[in-house]
Specification:
The complex is a heterodimer of chains A (86) and B (206). With 86 residues, chain A is mainly alpha-helical. Helices cover 70% and strands 0% of the residues of chain A. Chain A has helices at residues 6-20, 26-38, 40-56, 69-83. In chain A, α1 packs parallel to α3 (40-56). With 206 residues, chain B is mostly helical. Chain B is 70% helix and 0% strand. Chain B has helices spanning 14-22, 26-48, 51-68, 78-96, 104-107, 120-123, 126-129, 132-145, 148-159, 164-171, 175-204. In chain B, α10 crosses α11. Chain B is elongated, with a radius of gyration of 20 Å. The termini of chain B are far apart.
Amino acid sequence: MSKTDPTECDRFCDLLSCYLDNELSSDKCRKLEEHMRECDSCRGFFESFEFTVELSRKIVRCEEYEMPDEVGERLREILRTRCKGC
Amino acid sequence: MNETNMGGFTALTDDELVQRAQEDDYGSFEELVRRYEKKIYGHTIRMLGNPEDAEDVLQETFLNAFRALRSFRGDSSFSTWIYRIATNNALMKIRKSGRTYTEFEEEIPPPEMMRDRPYSWFERNPREAFQEKELMDALNRAVNDLPEKYRAIFLLRDVEGFSTQRAAEVLEISESAAKSRLHRARMYLREFLEKALDGEFESKNE
């Protein structure tokens, strides 16, 4: 494992979300990528962090979170009863 | 209330529907409900973790929206507005249930506490060692474990795919606060997954 300045590793961690969201300046991006090439530990951390975010984006497709038809029917019925003609 | 014929709604924008609904066209309001009910249900069930509470909040959200529609001035989009009502209602529900985290600092460690943890679970290649369902189950447990204000920003940004600006508008916080909360939420989820999957990997290989 390569040796890097721990404070640089701290700064690296703070920037990971902005890096993944393309919210970093090109200069900061370049420095972060340089650090990742040099520091095995931060590179491993980044890969697990990125994996977590990628996995999170799949939650939206989970079937258990889809609205059953009857929930929509009950909603529209309640709204009709309580709102229509107000 | 007057009603526009059903066939004419699909071509209308949200803004046009809102305007018609404000002029007492109930059919236009119902079209807005149809456009957003599934998204709002998905958001509330992920916020609350159970279908009964999610349905309550869904109904409450559209009832609130109907009552407040006349005062809606379009400062934000209808979509942002309805998510804001739903998120606030969901947060209220969590607080009323007593499952609340008032001292966030105690509930979620600051990022610097989560940096130096090992990531052995990841080196075992979770894509090969676990089925996707196992990974999703672990992640869902992690999300349910997140204190609510972190859960809200995480769901809006990473699950619903909102921009930072729009998520901040929904939550009525600054963009920098939104970024900071999101980062902490992601760090927490990464660490939760690490512990959960490490444990499952060990038990699978005993």
